[in-house]
Specification:
The chain is an alpha/beta fold. The chain contains ten helices and twelve strands. β11 (282-285) and β12 form a beta hairpin.
Length: 297
């Protein structure tokens, strides 16, 4: 039995807005990610996808629940030793490739910042060689290390973001809507690049997106989020061929089809969430890997 690289148990993330109002962004989400696999998180805007990613990497302090990464408990207070291990072995690719890069720093310094902090080189020459190698790996030239972010296109900037995450040789990369700001042709290039890198480095991905076709292409397993609840999770085949939860069915019915004849007869499935109280729903299982919240009780 392969042990999960990441275990998320009953994760809760609440934001107190005022004395009388709290936003419950994530409510009791649980899932696992195994080494070398891609777990896709999908859902509409505001469902809690990005919040989960930021809570796992500890940009937010989780309100409740437990997160275990590489056998280390990373929820609650972190010791300096565990914090350094977390920062080295888990990286994040952010949604906006421009705002996540410091415009005052050259690309080489942006990519090499993690190397500097964790002292992962012995000489400046070795540092430059590592940066040049990672730039070539993501399809950029080593000469680009002397340029600034504003001198690149959106697709190139996202490649820089991927290079910054990869240079630490992490075990898990959280890709937060990393292709949503790119053109369709560039999206395909970036996703194929991520798959090639995964085959080479055996890293795992938490792939956060709302583009179902791209999630289907890259993911091994998928979790469907709605209003901060994980309403269904299973393998890619199970989710797309046999969706059980009404929200998943509604989400998949909204995907446009490239065939005009099929698209003409496509029927939208509506889902009225106001009639469902997720707190009273029970978790049910249809197979070893397929779980869903049952709103039918």
């Amino acid at each position: 039995m392969i042990e999960p690289l990441l275990k998320v148990k009953n994760l809760q993330q609440h934001f107190k807005i005022s004395r009388s109002f709290t936003v419950k962004a994530v409510n009791g989400v649980s899932f696992e990610i195994y080494p070398g696999e891609t777990y896709g998180l999908v859902g509409e805007s505001g469902s809690g996808k990005t919040t989960i990613g930021r809570s796992i990497i500890r940009l937010y302090d989780p309100t409740g629940g437990e997160i275990i990464f590489n056998r280390d408990k990373i929820s609650g207070e972190l010791s300096n030793k565990i914090r350094r291990r977390l920062r080295k072995n888990m990286q994040m690719i952010f949604q906006d490739p421009m705002s996540s890069l410091n415009p005052r720093k050259k690309i080489g310094d942006i990519i090499g910042e993690g190397l500097d902090i964790h002292k992962l080189y012995s000489t400046p020459k070795q540092r430059n060689e590592i940066i040049a190698e990672i730039l070539k790996k993501v399809g950029l030239s080593p000469a680009h290390a002397e340029r600034y972010p504003q001198q690149f296109s959106g697709g190139q900037r996202q490649r820089v973001g991927i290079a910054r995450a990869l240079v630490m040789n992490p075990k898990l990369i959280i890709a937060d809507e990393c292709i949503s700001a790119l053109d369709v042709s560039i999206q395909a290039q970036v996703v194929n690049l991520m798959k090639d890198i995964q085959d080479e480095t055996k890293c795992a991905y938490l792939f956060i997106a709302h583009d179902l076709s791209m999630v289907k292409y890259i993911s091994d397993r998928i979790g469907v989020l709605h209003k901060g609840y994980l309403v269904e999770t299973g393998t890619t085949k199970e989710i797309f061929s046999n969706p059980i939860h009404p929200y998943t069915q509604s989400l998949l019915s909204a995907v446009p089809q490239p065939n005009p004849a099929v698209e003409k007869n496509r029927k939208l499935i509506t889902y009225d969430a106001s009639k469902v109280d997720y707190e009273k729903c029970s978790l049910k299982q249809s197979s070893d890997t397929h779980f869903f919240l049952s709103p039918f009780d």
